[in-house]
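Practice record 12: protein with nicotinamide-adenine-dinucleotide.
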Amino acid sequence: MARRVTIMPGDGIGREVSTAARRCVDATGVKIDWDEQIAGEEAILKFGTVLPRQVLESIRKNKVAIKGPITTPVGKGFRSVNVQLRMSLDLYACLRPCKLYKGVKTRYDKLDLVVIRENTEDLYAGIEFAEGQVKTKETIEYIEKMSGSGIRQDSAIGIKPISVTASRRIVKFAFDYALKNNRKKVTAVHKANIMKETDGLFLKVAREVAKGYEGKIEFEDRIVDNMCMQLVQKPELYDVLVLPNLYGDILSDLCSGLAGGLGIAPGANIGSDMALFEPIHGSAPKYAGMNKVNPAATILSGVLMLRYMGETAAADRLEKAVAQVMEEGRDVTYDLKSDRNDPSAVGTSQMADAIIAKLERGD
Ligand code: NAD
């Protein structure tokens, strides 16, 4: 029987890459009954809200979803639909594997990292007070009274909640992932030397959780600025990284850059009984509608989805087909050519066609 899966095409380049992923997942032969839902700007026009209730209901019911990127206005406008989805559905673990594929240009010979980012709190909790508003002034007064520290009156304020509950479950997720996937080491990343209470708590909890895995999985911690330098210089020393929300967001883009760029970097948002798969990259509006960008990140998100659904053989075949097409380097998008202006670069849908042809031939 076909398994029902929610699909959100997204906007910008979203529809192009998600269509490519859907076609490739279908070509594995796994029977999926796609439940298409819209969110973001298109949903405002149709339903008057960026995240219609039926989207959340569909994911809660189907338990598995895949989406293309959705645009978020910068510095104004509505709150990120992506963040709202992760928070509303308590998809607390963001999983972003970064590994080398032959044929993809990178500066490294060895790299196989998994970034695990906490998805529900930290500065992404969305608790912000705008500069100049009455409640901001009251918040400033209250914080000054409670902390004894001065805050400039013309400040905007953001709140960074880090809890024992969320820290414990994300670090536990990282260790369990490491155990299940034959990984050797978990590195907790923080800035606890400066943020002693918030990041300090994350680190304290990480150390406690690590004790439960002693002798099975190695544990260490790194301060986030040092971690950035270490990743650029010697990424081969790292295995599974676990981070609070903001550092996790930034470092996963950094790691995707190490592996060859956003065009090939997949992601998953996982909760206790449901998951939403999506590429790391955004909606790249300047390329929208051009059939130009790389669909691999979304197709590889489909591979993560198939694994989550227990369709391991189909996932392996699809990942192999993507890897072969990238290694051959012929039917690939501009970002995978050594010269980005190479006229032989193919479009999004043609790269998907080449992957499907490989799958069907099964070489
Ligand atoms: P972006 O990832 O959309 O694009 C940055 C650059 O990366 C592009 O200009 C392009 O050169 C390259 N790129 C991205 N995807 C590519 C692909 N598939 N193939 C080849 N090259 C690719 O980042 P941005 O410009 O910072 O963000 C654009 C919008 O996307 C913003 O509104 C942002 O909020 C949103 N966004 C959404 C998500 C999501 O839906 N989960 C994630 C990140 C950003």
